[in-house]
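Assemble and predict.
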Amino acid sequence: MKRPASPRRPTIREVAARAGVSHQTVSRVINADGYVSDATRAKVLQAIGHLKFVPNGIARSLSSRRSHTLGVVSNDISDHSFAEMAAGAELEARRQGFYLIIGSVEDGSPDDEEAYLRLMQQRRIDGLIVARPRLRRSSLRVLAAIAESIPTVAIASRVEALKLHSVDIDNRGGGRLATTHLIENGHRAIATITGPLDWPSAQARLEGTREALRDAGVEAKLAVASTGEWGVEAGRSAMAELMRSGDRFTAVFAQSDLLALGAIAELQARGLSVPGDMSVIGYDDIPVARYMSPALTTVRQPMNEVGATAVRLLTQELAGPSPSGRKRRRHQLVDVSLVVRQSVAGPAQAGRSRRG
Amino acid sequence: MKRPASPRRPTIREVAARAGVSHQTVSRVINADGYVSDATRAKVLQAIGHLKFVPNGIARSLSSRRSHTLGVVSNDISDHSFAEMAAGAELEARRQGFYLIIGSVEDGSPDDEEAYLRLMQQRRIDGLIVARPRLRRSSLRVLAAIAESIPTVAIASRVEALKLHSVDIDNRGGGRLATTHLIENGHRAIATITGPLDWPSAQARLEGTREALRDAGVEAKLAVASTGEWGVEAGRSAMAELMRSGDRFTAVFAQSDLLALGAIAELQARGLSVPGDMSVIGYDDIPVARYMSPALTTVRQPMNEVGATAVRLLTQELAGPSPSGRKRRRHQLVDVSLVVRQSVAGPAQAGRSRRG
DNA sequence: GAAGAAAATGTGACCGGTCACCTACCGGCC
DNA sequence: GGCCGGTAGGTGACCGGTCACATTTTCTTC
C-alpha cells in the first residue's frame, strides 16, 4: 500500500495561497455558492487554471456525507432488457448529477449479488436500485440493512418482505395485451410459452393471459408450457413439447422474443409456416425482432423508462425529506405497447390444422 | 445540502470504545493486517457485529489515496460488443478487488464523453479504460491530463497521439480470416460491406480483406460498399447499392452481423437464396446469429477478453511501479476465431449468376 | 450620520479512515 | 544482565474537502 509515485494533485489550499484568498473562498468559487466578488472569482479561477486543479470528489463526499452515487445491482446486463434498464437509469442519473455504480450479477456466480450489496454499502451510495427477479435469501438481510438507511427501489423483483419502493413493467397488462391481440385475430385455442415461473414477470404475464381469455368471454383453450430460461433453446424445446402434447391451438404467445424465435425455428423445422399455419407473438421487442422472418409481432416494454423512473424515485426522496414527514413506499407501473408486424394472422384453415 | 436525517453510521472509534481498544487496533482487525492477538480480535469483531459497523470506503479512499475504482468510458453499451467488453472488464476488476464506474456514451449526446472523463478525474479513479473508436478532439486534452497521472488503456480507439497502452481485437486478422474462408469455399469475386471507415476496426478489417485476397495469389475481385453505421438498415441499403452497381460477385463479407442481417434481408427480398445464390459471412457472433436463417457464419471476437485484458494491464501497472523504472506502453491484440454455420457455401453455378 | 442588513471573506473543527511513529512486553542469546 | 527482535498495541497528524460560525466591508435606510 505504498503511496503512488505520481506528483500529488494540487489542493484547494494551494489554489487559495496562489490566489491570495482563503481556502473557503476557493470552495465557494468551485461550488458557485455563497458570496464571491467578481474580481476574487477571477483570481481564483486563474489560479485553478494555472495549477490544473481538479476538486477531489472523494474528499468532497467524505465531508458532505453525500457520495452522489447510486448503486445498481442488476441481473446480467448481457440480457438486453437489463442493459436497456441500466442505460436508462444512467442517463437519468447523469441528468441529475449522480453517478451510477452498476453491479451486473451473472447467473453463474450468484455470490456476487451479496458481494455487490456489501460493496455498495461500504461505498456509501446515496441510493440503491435492485433489479434481481430471483433475489437470494442470503442477500436479504444485507439488503434490509441498506434499505434501512438509504432510499431503495426494487425493479421487477419480489421483495414484499422489505418495504421498498418499486418500479415494474405492467406485465399483467402486457400478457393481456398480447393475448387480446391473438383473440382479436380470431384465435380461440392458444398456447403460451412462459419464462421461468419463479420470475415475477413470467407469473404476471401468465395471469394477464388468463385474464384476457376470461374477459373475452369466448370459449377459449389455453395450453401452457413453462421453461427454465428465457433463451432460444428453451423456446424451441417448449414448442416441441407443445406439439407433442397433442393440444390443439392456432397461436402461440411466447413470453420473450428469444423464446418466440426458438418457437418459430421449431415450427419452421417441422415445415409449418408462420403466420400461415401458426401465429406467434413475442415479448420484449429486441432489436432484431423486426428483422426476423417473419418480422415478429411483439410487446414493447420501455425498460430504459423503468430505469429512469427508478432513479427519479430515489433522487426525489433524496432531495425532499419526504414532505410532511410521511415516508410512503411508492409503486410505479410502466405501460407496455403492442408492436404489430407479420408473425400474427388469422387462424389457419380448419383443414390445415395439424395434430400430434 | 442538509445532512441526511438517517442516524449516523458507527465509526471505527465507536467500535474501538466499545471493544476497549484504540481505533488503530480496529483498523488492524478490519484490514487483517499487523499484529492483533486472537482475544483482542474477537472483542473487536464482536463490537463490529453489535454496532453493525461497515467501514466507510470513502474515508478509506481519501486517506489511502486509492479509490480502488477503475473508470470505463465506452461507446453505448446497448451495442452488444461494448456490453460484452464492459462485462468482461467488470468481472476481472472485481476479481482483483476493484470497482468499475462505467460511462456509456450514446451517439446522440457526444458531450457526455468529456463530461465522463472530467467526472472520473474528480472521482480520483486509479485507472482508466477508454473505448471510443471515434474519440472527439475536444476530449483529447482532458484525456491527456488524466493519462499523465494515472494508467490508461485505449480499446479499439485511435489515440496514437497519446502514449497509452492499448488492447484491441485483431481486426486485420479477422478480416483476413473471413475473407480466406470465402476464398477457400471457391469464391473469386467478393464484395464487402464495411462499417464506418473512421472506425479503426472497419479500416483494419478492410485491410485484412485486401491482404487475404493478395496472399491467396488468385485473381480475385473486390467490390467495396461502406456504410455510416453498423446496423441492419445500413446493411440492407449497402447490399442494394452493391446490386445496383453491376459488379459481379458470389459472396459478401459484412463487417458486422447486423450488416450481414440487413444484406441477407435484401437478398431474400430479391428472391435470392443464401447461401444458394450468394454466400454471406458476418462479424461479431451476436447471440442471435446462430438462430438466423440461414444460421450465420461469422467471426467471433471475445470482447469480454478484451475488457479483462485492459483491466489486467491497469492493475499490473498499479501493483508494480513498472519494474526497472521504465514505463513502456504495451499493445495487446486479442485473437478472433471463425464460427462456421450455414450462410457460406460454394459459388453459385455460373448460369445462375445475376447482374444489375 | 448612525444603525442595520447584505455582501464578502476568513478561521478552525470535522468527516472517518490510514499513516508514521512510539511504547511495552516477552523470550532468546551472548 | 544487556541487547535484540518479534509481537501487541497506542497516539496524533493527515488526506482534502465542507460546515458552522466569526469577522470585516459595503450598501441601505431613516
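The longest helix of chain A spans residues 200-216.
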